[in-house]
């Protein structure tokens, strides 16, 4: 029994916690984690609900493989209606929290309503308890985690919590677990804050049993060997982390720079994975170590220390210790996209995003949009309390990040996210995103398939719904031309469906640099009841994708929202291999709709829904 | 020839595959909290250290046990707990200077690393070679070799 077959329903309004059997009919159709939690959300909330109202729900879920010996089995997912986007939000995180939830005997926790005062859930195996969080409200994620462990005298408790931005309703606040792992995107932390839920603390020691133990362990052994032997998962990611990409993406001319005005950054090598390995003036390196989430044999996580003499930390010894270092997305959003090439300053900005629960992608992108407006004279130092918000200004970046965390001055405006910020100042064209969510680190003029991925992503612009970069740049599973649009509709569809199913298994999507869907299906099949194959996993993924799509349509989105900013559709890339190119979304989108079995407006046709049992 | 666990913290990523493997081997489930090997994190330094029983030759736990429940496996050198004889008095957990023998309240017994009878599961599960199972009489040889290289084994500077 890979599923715990049990969910916890926490009604924050009433202060009650009740156990329910997991709907196993749904589990066989949606697998777990992302898919199954989305099914519960779709069934239980009105898609038009205000994300910050008590009527919205927030679900934390594990997959059937979470907590098992399968490599990367530490994932858990947060599903809700997103505050940033108004679309279905599903943000997934690693670390050790998901494993602990499963070990406590739960597949899922559904939070509903709103607590009259700040509380945290303390869950010890079968014993849930809502506890007053007055001592932690107003505190950072790091202080909250430390405080809860100290209060219960148990360092083995795992905590997921929000910081100040989540309490204040910052549109891109996230939920951080295990100090530096985050359910990052779409503002899931703001929703948690709107419920007066400060933290979820779990301690579980029941263990997870699997019937077909020997068969499962053989598939696990084979899977681990494949990851170890693959050059990406066995060497590139452990050595450089996702930061292995900084120089690669810059070279192909797809590194969004200065709010996507440029697509190559002259300072890329200064903020790259290679730079993190370089010896600094004081003889130390930025990179201290690599690290793994629960059960992960890849270990892509960075652990960094900021140079002690750097302006960000020289008077603040508490930030001179090691902490979660730069991933590619953080380094890009806070670095290339703001034009800042100061590795240490970006590392600091990323540290405090972890400390306080902010999505560094949306944060960096929103500051970039503000920088562009500053340079255009739309906003001035009068608006920014004297901060010179120019591209490339590391001090300005750090000041703005801290102001956003505290909700002070112009930081409050940054907390709106780039779409609302740019609209407020009358320059909506400077918002670089889709469905109100800011782009991640790939310029779709240089990687055509990513334009379609972004435009059709169910949670707004995102690289983790359909990472066609794998094929278009890295050649996984086979190389396609990043500047070509032919065949990209089919590529995006299959990546979206496969990703949805992997996300629902409890495993990490990074395994798919090495694992095929067959490799994953064989582990799911050995662990779970039912027949699981690559084909059935793809069908589950397609079902999830269409369900999410239908939710968004019911929430008020239309096919018109499947688009990109004019800058990417009309302004050609200025340099690099993609020079002269725009994203040719119009060539890909109609074919994509057709392959999906959707009508010309992007609405799933009746027979498509019927085929998928929706 | 006896073998021993050799743990190299510099290679540890903190993934807990050793804990998972230990719990499967001994309690038949995935349960890090039931593992006899533990990975400790030192976040301020960004370091991870797996730690377990070193199988003392003259074991404090064995000497302290009033019922004779702890005995040496002559073949592997492991100090093993005989569960039917253990009364759960926990004196061994006080006696052990390293904290590597612990009480399990569910069963009312103590538990410690037994080297899996001579084929440790943690070693096979470790993805980075941070835990190896080597000749008990040669645990210093890797470090000795590193020092040897510095004193003349490496490439000689040109004259």
What is the gyration radius of chain B calculated from CA atoms? Answer: 18 Å
How far is the N terminus from the C terminus of chain A? Answer: 26 Å
Number of domains of chain A: 3
**Biggest pleated-sheet summary of chain B:** 2 strands, antiparallel
CATH architectural grouping of the largest domain in chain A: Orthogonal Bundle
What is the CATH topology assignment of chain B? Answer: Alpha-Beta Plaits
Note poorly predicted spans of chain A. Answer: none
Radius of gyration of chain A: 22 Å
What's the count of strands of chain B? 8
The backbone outline of chain A, from C-alpha atoms, is: globular
Mean pLDDT of chain B: 94
Helix and strand run of chain B:
EHEEHEEHEEHEH
Major sheet of chain A: 6 strands, mixed
Q: Order of strands in the sheet with the most strands of chain B?
A: 1-8
In CATH's first tier, which class of chain B applies? Alpha Beta
Give the terminus-to-terminus CA distance of chain B. Answer: 45 Å
Proportion of β residues of chain B? Answer: 15-25%
What share of the residues of chain A does DSSP label as strand, in percent?
Answer: 5-15%
What is the count of distinct domains of chain B?
1
CATH architecture of chain B: 2-Layer Sandwich
Characterize the structure shown:
The complex is a heterodimer of chains A (about 625) and B (about 160). Chain A has about 625 residues and is α+β, with helices and mostly antiparallel strands. Chain A has three domains: about 5-205, Aldehyde ferredoxin oxidoreductase, N-terminal domain (Aldehyde Ferredoxin Oxidoreductase,  A, domain 1); about 220-250 and about 255-430, Orthogonal Bundle (Aldehyde Ferredoxin Oxidoreductase Protein, subunit A, domain 2); about 440-610, Aldehyde Ferredoxin Oxidoreductase Protein, subunit A, domain 3, CATH 1.10.599. Chain A is built from 24 helices and 17 strands. In chain A, a hairpin with a 4-residue loop joins strand 1 and strand 2 (about 15-20). In chain A, helix 11 (about 330-335) runs parallel beside helix 13 (about 360-375), helix 13 (about 360-375) packs parallel to helix 16 (about 420-425) and helix 19 packs across helix 23 (about 585-595). With about 160 residues, chain B is of the alpha+beta class. Chain B has a single domain, classed as 2-Layer Sandwich (Alpha-Beta Plaits), CATH 3.30.70. Chain B is built from five helices and eight strands; from the N terminus they run E-H-E-E-H-E-E-H-E-E-H-E-H. The termini of chain B are far apart.
């Amino acid at each position: 029994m890979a599923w715990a077959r049990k969910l916890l329903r926490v009604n924050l309004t009433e202060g009650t916690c009740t156990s329910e059997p997991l709907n196993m009919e749904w589990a066989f159709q949606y697998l777990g984690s992302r898919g199954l939690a989305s099914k519960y959300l779709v069934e239980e909330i009105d898609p038009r609900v205000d994300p910050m109202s008590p009527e919205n729900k927030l679900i934390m879920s594990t997959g059937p493989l979470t907590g098992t010996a399968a490599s990367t089995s530490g994932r858990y997912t947060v599903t809700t209606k997103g505050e940033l986007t108004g679309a279905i939000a599903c943000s997934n995180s690693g670390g050790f929290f998901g494993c602990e939830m499963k070990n406590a005997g739960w597949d899922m926790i559904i939070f509903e309503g709103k607590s009259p005062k700040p509380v945290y859930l303390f869950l010890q195996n079968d014993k849930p308890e809502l506890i007053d969080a007055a001592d932690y409200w107003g505190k950072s994620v790091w202080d909250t985690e430390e405080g809860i462990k100290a209060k219960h005298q148990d360092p083995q408790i795992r905590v997921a919590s929000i910081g100040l931005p989540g309490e204040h309703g910052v549109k891109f606040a996230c939920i951080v677990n295990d100090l530096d792992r985050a359910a990052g995107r779409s503002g899931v932390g703001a929703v948690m804050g709107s419920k007066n839920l400060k933290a979820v603390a779990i301690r579980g020691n029941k263990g997870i049993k699997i019937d077909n133990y020997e068969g499962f362990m053989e598939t696990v052994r084979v899977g681990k060997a494949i990851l170890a032997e693959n050059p990406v998962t066995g060497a590139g990611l452990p050595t450089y982390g996702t930061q292995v990409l900084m120089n690669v993406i810059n070279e192909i001319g797809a590194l969004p720079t200065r709010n996507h005005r440029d697509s190559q950054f002259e300072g890329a090598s200064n903020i790259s994975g290679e730079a993190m390995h370089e010896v600094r003036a004081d003889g130390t390196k930025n990179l201290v170590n690599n690290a793994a989430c629960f059960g992960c044999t890849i270990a892509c996580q960075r652990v960094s220390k900021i140079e002690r003499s750097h302006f960000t930390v020289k008077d603040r010894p508490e930030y001179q210790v090691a902490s979660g270092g730069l991933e590619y997305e953080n380094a890009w959003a806070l670095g290339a996209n703001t034009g800042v090439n100061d590795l240490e300053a970006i590392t600091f900005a990323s540290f405090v995003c972890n400390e306080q629960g902010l999505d560094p992608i949306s944060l960096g992108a929103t500051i970039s949009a503000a920088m562009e407006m500053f340079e255009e004279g739309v906003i001035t130092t009068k608006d920014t309390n004297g901060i010179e918000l120019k591209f490339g200004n590391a001090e300005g970046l750090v000041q703005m990040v801290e102001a956003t965390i505290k909700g002070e001055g112009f930081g409050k405006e940054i907390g709106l996210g780039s779409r609302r910020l740019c609209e407020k100042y009358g320059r909506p064209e400077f918002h670089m995103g889709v469905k109100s969510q800011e782009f991640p680190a790939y310029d779709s003029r240089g990687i055509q398939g990513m334009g379609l991925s972004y435009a059709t992503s169910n949670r707004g612009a995102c690289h983790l719904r359909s990472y066609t970069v794998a094929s278009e740049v890295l050649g996984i599973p086979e190389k396609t031309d990043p500047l070509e649009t032919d065949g990209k509709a089919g590529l995006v569809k299959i990546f979206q469906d496969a990703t949805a199913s992997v996300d629902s298994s409890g495993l990490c999507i990074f395994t798919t640099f090495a694992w095929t869907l067959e490799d994953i299906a064989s582990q799911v099949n050995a662990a779970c009841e039912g027949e699981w194959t690559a084909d059935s996993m793809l069908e589950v993924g397609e079902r999830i994708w269409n369900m999410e799509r239908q939710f968004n349509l019911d929430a008020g989105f239309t096919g018109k929202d499947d688009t990109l900013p004019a800058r990417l559709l009309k302004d050609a890339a200025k340099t690099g291999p993609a020079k002269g190119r725009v994203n040719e979304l119009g060539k890909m989108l109609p074919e994509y709709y057709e392959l999906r079995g959707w009508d010309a407006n992007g609405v799933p046709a009746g027979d498509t829904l019927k085929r998928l049992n929706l | 020839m006896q073998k021993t666990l050799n743990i190299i913290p510099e290679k540890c990523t903190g993934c807990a595959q050793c804990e998972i493997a230990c719990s499967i081997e001994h309690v038949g489930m995935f349960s890090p909290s039931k593992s006899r090997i533990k990975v400790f994190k030192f976040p301020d330094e960004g370091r991870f250290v797996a730690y377990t029983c070193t199988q003392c030759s003259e074991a404090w736990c064995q000497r302290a046990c009033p019922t004779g429940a702890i005995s040496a496996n002559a073949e592997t050198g492991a100090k093993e707990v005989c569960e039917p004889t253990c009364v759960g008095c926990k004196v061994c957990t006080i006696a052990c200077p390293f904290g590597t023998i612990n009480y399990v309240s569910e069963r009312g017994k103590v538990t410690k690393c037994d080297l899996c009878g001579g084929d440790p599961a943690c070693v096979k599960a470790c993805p980075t070679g941070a835990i190896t199972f080597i000749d008990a009489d040669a645990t210093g040889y890797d470090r000795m070799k590193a020092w040897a290289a510095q004193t003349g084994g490496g490439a000689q500077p040109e004259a």
